[in-house]
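Can anyone check this?
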Amino acid sequence: MTDAGNEQHLALLLKSFSKNMYLNYVDKTDRIINKCIIGENYSSVERIRTPDGAGDIAFRVKFDYPIYITLSHPICRFRSHRNYPMRERLFIANLGLVPVFLSSLNEMTVLKLWGDRAEEFFNPQNSPLADTQIRCWELRESSTPADFSSMNFLRQNGSGPEVAGKRLTEIYEKYFRLGYWSFPKKGFSPSTHFLHGRTHITSQVKIAKSLYVIDEIDKKSEGFEMEGKTIEAVRVRLGGLGEKDGRYYFTYFPAFIDTEIANKMIARDNLSTSFINGIVAEVLRKEKPRLSLMTVVAEYGESYFDILVSLIGIIADKKYADAEEISYIGTVDDLRESVYNLYLDIYKNVKVGKTLSDTISNSFDIALNAMFPILIVAEDQKVMMIHPLIWGFLKKWDLIGKDDDEQREILIHLLSIMALQKTTGFSKMFLTDDAEYFASRRINKYQFIRATMKLVQDIRMCRMMRQILETSDEKPAFDLDKFKK
């Protein structure tokens, strides 16, 4: 299979699996390419043409710094290892498909592993999923770096994985819990991915990361087949938080919960006064009924404080998606008002027990501080959101701080330089006190400012991609022309 053949072939399988999903994917991909390559000339994006060269079928994105993925047994629940005939079936390859959390882009994707890499990953003695611990992998820089496809899969290429350090692992685990929210959307939306063989797609998986409550739960388990494995699950009635056009609401629907997760839920004394921050996967298989399965519990919420932290994450994520600035999402008071309004809309659905946090007068401020380093409160009570790509950039420049105080200082100076790109040129950015701060850390100012400008371009690109994928309108929710200097 040629290098472009991965997307070309998968697109044909998608067209056969679901014509509507295929058309929606092609439409959104075309709009992204028109913005990224034709409109903005983003150097990180490579377009992939149809086999006849008549149009575009996909694109790939590469970055100039390490990217990170998060793995665990629940996150990788639908992983599969299969034979993959190639070259008119004259050669049989090993293909491993592993759903992972692409931490650097804040979405679920599929890591594609070929040959020995697939064999090693799925070998029970060597598998990185040999225990229940969450792991964070760094896909380091190389001459052939990892790339991300518009069809939502990730290829390692020459980027061999390394286990990320403790600090970055903790940071990205917090992003997964409190910075990653993905409400159900129609069509090809962020985190939609496909599991497939050579001849057909076996499963289409759409991810919803939200807040859930258990309305009813059946203690009797039942099994169904998924990717060559039998999944034991129990039936439940879930209430899930959704969003449309800035309006939040709870909907109730039938679903399954993995038996292992369900048993832990049933054992809890306070399940009726708890909520779940988790993932529900909507799985569609050919000629089989659609089903919803809760696969991941990021955490249980048991108090008013737990609600506050989750709602701050949800509102901040929404404000950031709609914002015109590269990091600024509003003032502390703006965020506080939006969070309290959301709480008033949903408090009847999310019932928690009385705790000490109910009596603390500044609980919002404490909860907001708990969001560091996803959110930073800068001078004048401005709230800034840190795009997860930034951490790979900081790792490349050896700017992962030894503690929160040093990290806050580094981020404030970096965000100040990034914000200047909208209104000024390289020479003025070069002469700022913020640039001098990095020079004092023995960093080449010229190279650093150039790299920061490229980072801003990459973040704009990722945000624009998300905007187009999340909307069913013809145009994204904001105009990228406003980002220009």
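Reply from J.R.: I decoded it. The first helix runs from residue 5 to 17.
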